[in-house]
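Hi all, long-time lurker, first post. I run a small reading group and we've been trying to get comfortable going from sequence to structure in the token notation. Rather than ask abstract questions, I figured I'd post a concrete chain and ask someone more experienced to write out its structure so we can walk through it together at our next meeting. Sequence below, copied exactly:
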Amino acid sequence: MPLVSTKSLVDSAAQRGSAVAAFNIITLEQLEAVILGAEAADRSVILQISENAVRFHGGHVLPLTRAALAASEQAMVGAALHLDHVTDPALLHQAADAGFSSVMFDAGAAPHGENIARTAAAVQWGHAAGLYVEAELGYVGGKPDAPQSAHADGTRTDPREAADYVRRTGVDALAVAVGTSHAMTTRSARLDQILIAELTAAVAVPLVLHGSSGVDDRQLRSAVEAGMRKVNIGTALNIAYTSAITRHLVAHPNTVDPRKYLLEARAAVSEVVTAMIHVIDPNPVAAGDRAAESRSRLY
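-- Answer (accepted) --
Happy to help. Here is the structure in token form:
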């Protein structure tokens, strides 16, 4: 089916008191696996391509993006396309024409005032281009001038600072620091569920959980119940992908045809996608919600 918008998926999830799963992809096989896993779960999904993934592909955003567009056209479930962790304004300015309906603009490494100014400018440009804009805030409460990633160990987002940040930048969704870190290879993160509820009450836009590969099923469900509306997953896919390839090559060291081990890698990632979606959004989507998700991809 044609691409749907990130906004429609997040709004639909919020109306149902649930969340939409967003998966970061790097290769064609991972893209195909996310679509297959979403179809098996019968849920719409967000396909995310990060600035780092674009850099991996020689700095070219279109090859993987066009593959995602083609895969979405053939999918049996809705899919949205999201440009993730963008720091380069030049890449941001390619997003709408490339087919993305949303972008996460990342000025989190800048001092607080600069973060606000740069993000507000990105939002102004993005909205004019029809993009839904996500950002992140990870400052420790009371220390807003010290730049710190939203996913550095020990970082937490202060609800009052978050509300002010959203008001001053105009972002459509906010990634917050509640106990996760990027690139975790074990599911040992401990989420601050009370803080998630406080942020939900304080912030006027949907909350996003980054680094979700490091969170166990029970805590993920609780986070969604407390107000998370978009849940990002990347490392879990890479673990499944790499592990399947490693197993195959250990068992079959003379393999030279990449299709043999990539077939297994794609299947392994697909299983992870289905399992994660069922954790994040366990309830079937009603026909009315499907219709809402299928609205125009424009913001």
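A couple of things your group might point at:
The two ends are 18 Å apart (CA to CA).
Residues 140-144 have pLDDT under 50 and may be disordered.
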